[in-house]
Amino acid sequence: METVARATWGVAYAGIIPDEVQRRLLDSWYSLQSLSRALATNGSSFFVAESGGEVIGFAQFVRRSSESVELTRIYVLPDRQRSGIGMRLLDAGLAEFREEGLKQVTVQVERDNRNGRRFYERAGFADPRELSHDVQGFGLALVEYRRPILGRLLSGLAMGESPRWHENRLWFSDWGGARDRSRRP
Ligand SMILES: CC(C)(COP(=O)(O)OP(=O)(O)OC[C@H]1O[C@@H](n2cnc3c(N)ncnc32)[C@H](O)[C@@H]1OP(=O)(O)O)[C@@H](O)C(=O)NCCC(=O)NCCS
After folding, report:
1. What is the DSSP letter of 18?
2. Nearest Cα to 127, choosing from 105, 109, 146, 114?
3. Is 22 inside a domain boundary?
4. Residue 30 CA, ligand 1 centroid: distance in Å
5. Cα–ligand 1 centroid distance for 160 (angstroms)
6. Mean pLDDT over residues 102-114, rounded?
7. Is the CB of 60 inside a 6 Å radius of any atom of ligand 1?
8. Do the domain assignments include residue 179?
9. CATH number of the domain that residue 73 is part of
10. pLDDT digits 0-9 by tens, 62-89
11. Domain count of the chain?
12. Percent above pLDDT 70 for the chain
């Protein structure tokens, strides 16, 4: 996951987050310790897209209440973008959270990340609300979107059907709490 984030950030955040701040955040958020903590956080689920034994994309969701879950990060390697992997990662989450009875998913994205915002809007996220966060001394302008969990899945799956890959493999694990719900379709 660290490799995917490092390959993706420079392109995605050029002109949005200064290089020096990116380096500091990557070192901090993708250290072994930080990732281990994120994997163990109660209510957090990671979904990982793999191809040929390599991680090519991932998404993390964190349950915020009995009704709501937040998509906290989603990245796909630059040379694998625009081939539907992001939507499948999102679908994997939506299918799982619908089963749990959650109602809404939220996401915060950089206000000036046009490609990221287009992806979310295409995925049915709406009602953008502007906010800002201080990340290690840098004021980051963001928008928060939301969308209901119920509804059509994005990559053409029917609700109730498990997300599946044809050739590439999508696997996902729920690392929160005592339950180990790892499964490999
Ligand atoms: C955003 C991201 C996760 C989407 O994953 P992906 O696998 O590329 O997305 P998909 O192929 O499922 O794209 C679905 C739709 O989203 C939109 N979209 C995705 N990436 C886009 C881009 N770079 N430019 C414009 N639209 C884009 C398109 O409408 C696309 O449909 P289309 O290709 O039929 O036009 C991925 O592009 C990425 O890692 N981007 C950089 C990091 C980032 O911005 N992350 C989100 C903010 S935290």
Report:
1. -
2. 146
3. yes
4. 22
5. 25
6. 97
7. no
8. no
9. 3.40.630.30
10. 999 999 999 999 999 999 999 889 999 9
11. 1
12. 81
